[in-house]
Amino acid sequence: MGASKDMNFATILLFLLAIATCTSPSSALRDLASGTSIEFIRTSCSKTTYPRLCFRSLSSYAAAIQTSPKLLASTALGVTLKDARSASATMVNLSRSQGLKPREAAAMQDCLELLSDAVDELRRSIAEMKDVKGPDFKLMISDVQTWVSAALTNEDTCSDGFAGEAMSGKVKTAVRTRIVTLSHFTSNALALINTYASLHG
Fold this sequence. Notes:
Layout: H1 2-45, H2 51-58, H3 62-65, H4 69-95, H5 102-131, H6 137-160, H7 170-198
Helix pairs in contact: 4-5, 4-7, 5-6, 6-7
């Protein structure tokens, strides 16, 4: 009876060892690939203006990005577009606040239009990035750079509308804080696009 138990235990142990032998290499390769992707993102983000924000916002996409500069730039654009839509929704809610001063209401309306343009420019950039290749690469990537730069300008103009002593209080703080974050995302995306473009110079 004891010998039978020992045999069964040995059989189970051998079976588990066989499974571990079969799965460990692939698991190790996955870990290595993941580590390589993370390091690629970290290194690429270190060249942007806001590296911490860049790495924090993109590291969770490491498996999809791998070590592709194009996928990194495209993902950064997607993250930026998502934040632009969120910022736009925030501005809509703020525009409905009670007690806005006439100048605040006017600046808010301008900001909403500017953010709408920024969202459109980012959306067009993402669509263009999917097709960037071949003999038209330089022309297409130039379009992307122009659109993302325009989005960044629109965001800055929105924020500038709430500058100066004439604007004060919670609305000004809320708008400028929210738009600054968005402009940082956009700046980082543009930097990664420029890096990708330079590889094909």
